[in-house]
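Hi W.,

Here's what went into the run:
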Amino acid sequence: MQFYPRFLSRFELTEIVLTSSEPLQPLNVSLSPRERFEEYLQSRGLRQTSQRRFLIEAVFQEHDHFDADELIDRLPRRGEKNYVSSATVYRTLREFVDAGLLKSFQLDGRTVYELDYGYPQHDHLYCTRCRQLFEFQSDPLVKLRDQVAADHGFRVTGHRMIIQGVCRDCGKNRRTKRKQDLV
Amino acid sequence: MQFYPRFLSRFELTEIVLTSSEPLQPLNVSLSPRERFEEYLQSRGLRQTSQRRFLIEAVFQEHDHFDADELIDRLPRRGEKNYVSSATVYRTLREFVDAGLLKSFQLDGRTVYELDYGYPQHDHLYCTRCRQLFEFQSDPLVKLRDQVAADHGFRVTGHRMIIQGVCRDCGKNRRTKRKQDLV
DNA sequence: TTGTATGCAAATAATTTGCACCAAA
DNA sequence: TTTGGTGCAAATTATTTGCATACAA
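Here's what came out:
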């Protein structure tokens, strides 16, 4: 049996792929996230507010992936000092992304954020057992991407690569909940 | 200024990357999607119903990406012949994915489905202007993936790669709505 | 002063779920 | 018959939005 072809194509490329195993270094950036954000706000005629200042500290204090809900959970509650409404949290997270401080992507339906400013480009391994995200960096991947894009007349603005599987630990502990290895 | 390192690492790999530009061929599969699904149902003691039979036809009649909403739109309405409730559509789409007939992934917040059974593995280029998805195939990408995974002790079950950018046509027509080149 | 920004609550949007009824095997 | 399947409507979840008020510039 046979299906109609869609817009599929291969691309041509021959190159030597090289990567190194040095630990990935944080980038040196001249401005702190906060300074960078202030610059962003100024350039657009937006305002500095206590909420924005507080949120940028809160976000850059942690160094892991998070979603809006997790962030809100570790912020002061309504009534407490420095409380920020969730509406504002959502609005501000988007601004952080616009400002280039954070990156966001979709995983299992929710929006996941991670620090971008001050961190090198990287991609993810996702363990479908424990749902943990691991990071890796690969220059060849980026080259491959550019090659594919060029091949299709695309001007690249970015990419998102997630490798799904079972991480080392979960591979050992077969006893770990299996569920359905969701995509 | 300097940030704490996270779980970042590079990996070691040296290889020759080769790809070809032959148009990608549909796979030859011995069973039709419908037969394949019937097999799946039987193996799990599930039932064949008119809704399931109808949906599999509807889904495999088209050969493009779609989301639940688009699918429901082109199905018979309530009251008409062969009407299927949206709840059942959602439930059945998930079964199709379980059965390996469809693949699903998240894009701009919604769940996008595409035919899997009978089609070769591939990845996507996404135009952030016209929001169209294009497909490409790259063996080196898969090798790279396996290498990275092995490097991290991962047992791979799959991956998702989306290259974002502006497609050829939208690159020409600067007049096309620009908005914010959303991720 | 003047127009953003924020908090609150209501509105969305996309799915999922509870439940009574229907229908394969 | 028995147990899974379906339709309907209500419930969820994650966000977004309208609007009156607060506040930075």
